[in-house]
Amino acid sequence: FAKLVKREPSEIIKKLLFLGIMATINNEIEVDAMTLVAEDYGIEVEIKEPVDEEAVDMLVEEENPENLSERSPIVTIMGHVDHGKTTLLDAIRSTNVTASEAGGITQHIGAYQVEIKGKKITFLDTPGHAAFTTMRARGAQVTDITILVVAADDGVMPQTVEAINHAKAANVPIIVAVNKMDKENANPDRVKQELTEYGLVAEEWGGDTIFVPVSALKRDGLEDILEMILLVSEVQELKANTDGRPRGTVIEAELDKGRGPVATVLVQNGTLRVGDIVVAGTTYGKVRAMVNDRGRRIKEAGPAMPVEILGLSDVPSAGDLFVVYDDERKASKLVDKRVSKVRQEAIGSNSRVTLDDLFKQIKEGEIKELNVILKADVQGSVEALRGSLEKIEVEGVRVRVVHQGVGAINESDIILATASNAIVIGFNVRPQPQAEKMADSEKVDVRLYRVIYNAIEEVEAALKGMLDPEF
Ligand code: GDP
């Protein structure tokens, strides 16, 4: 420090003494003290974070646009229970087994690829939005397009709405598959009508949402869906660098008795090869073998391709990002660091939004919007509360309701809250026990009210920084 400010060390030591800091020439000095002393000399202190390996995987390496080429879209299927998500996923998967592979074993590895008109499409094989949002909560953005399955004989149901809100929160375009068209009481117009309420307006009605009538059971309309996916993905111009640093996301992972830790990963950039050194979350290892969705051993996997990898030292979590390292020693050092950081974070505080420290986060510029998930006992209260919350006016911040619904606060609400950094407001409802546990461990702020006025008042106070902390 003395060298940097071009003074004698003894002079600095004296100054520090005035500040009540006993230092010798060998001591490190705190940033605060350093700043004060420097100010004395009219020197401004700028703190630079040291660059270390840890940064490497956080960094989505800027790829030179010249090196980018088209990659396949990655699709998730969501919708209400029993509307046909699993049937549709299975039907699409089997459309595509080529003659030579027919009779071969299709492996369920968590994702699969199909080919249409010479182009590939990747499907995440876990239906429902839990998987989708858990991943997003961990910072992974793996979905390019969402297929929203709505049964034509049943129409829009609560989980349909949840799915829409999850997709919207992640900014992922939605294609609606109106399923069970083979049923006598199928009423696709009703589905279209109901979905307009959620901003999904069919093209023939003047909107821009694609609706595809299908029957997953009778395997009707599957090609149409695939073609529409290609259409939407063309607009998105999805790109990756096949020769860039391989990285991607863990889709599923488990400990296999015979094979050890097995992880299905989706490569999102670069080409992953057998022998590569991979860091995934808090584990690492050398890729010993790779297996594709058809159960074949393969040597390399390019962008948008799902593969099962063997060779990690431990089981990563779904949603963990992975990245290839050139050097095993560095990889192990990074993982050590991460493990201890995770431990520290578990002990220390969290950065989730809570009403109590909202004002601080607003002031620090971390928050411009308070995201809220709203649950109430009846639709009327939901609407009333939403209306009042969105009317709250505090300079520079506003309330945004990311999801609303009638009924108890469930796990999906909590997952969505973690993913969109939201608080959960319950009006005359309680969290389900599982949801309560999860809110606790994920440190999601859940507030329960019986009087609308109290809810409004508390949120307003929090926005203005006048909330008495809750102990
Ligand atoms: P999920 O809960 O959304 O995954 O729904 P499933 O795929 O498990 O389907 C629920 C039920 O609906 C099953 O009995 C399916 O056989 C049935 N089903 C799915 N698709 C269709 C369809 O297109 N037509 C008819 N009639 N039944 C279907």
From TrEMBL:
<feature type="region of interest" description="G-domain">
    <location>
        <begin position="73"/>
        <end position="221"/>
    </location>
</feature>
<feature type="binding site">
    <location>
        <begin position="125"/>
        <end position="129"/>
    </location>
    <ligand>
        <name>GTP</name>
    </ligand>
</feature>
<feature type="domain" description="Tr-type G">
    <location>
        <begin position="70"/>
        <end position="239"/>
    </location>
</feature>
<protein>
    <recommendedName>
        <fullName>Translation initiation factor IF-2</fullName>
    </recommendedName>
</protein>
<dbReference type="GO" id="GO:0003924">
    <property type="term" value="F:GTPase activity"/>
</dbReference>
<comment type="similarity">
    <text>Belongs to the TRAFAC class translation factor GTPase superfamily. Classic translation factor GTPase family. IF-2 subfamily.</text>
</comment>
<feature type="binding site">
    <location>
        <begin position="79"/>
        <end position="86"/>
    </location>
    <ligand>
        <name>GTP</name>
    </ligand>
</feature>
<keyword id="KW-0963">Cytoplasm</keyword>
<dbReference type="GO" id="GO:0005829">
    <property type="term" value="C:cytosol"/>
</dbReference>
<dbReference type="GO" id="GO:0003743">
    <property type="term" value="F:translation initiation factor activity"/>
</dbReference>
<keyword id="KW-0648">Protein biosynthesis</keyword>
<keyword id="KW-0342">GTP-binding</keyword>
<feature type="binding site">
    <location>
        <begin position="179"/>
        <end position="182"/>
    </location>
    <ligand>
        <name>GTP</name>
    </ligand>
</feature>
<comment type="function">
    <text>One of the essential components for the initiation of protein synthesis. Protects formylmethionyl-tRNA from spontaneous hydrolysis and promotes its binding to the 30S ribosomal subunits. Also involved in the hydrolysis of GTP during the formation of the 70S ribosomal complex.</text>
</comment>
<keyword id="KW-0396">Initiation factor</keyword>
<keyword id="KW-0547">Nucleotide-binding</keyword>
<dbReference type="GO" id="GO:0005525">
    <property type="term" value="F:GTP binding"/>
</dbReference>
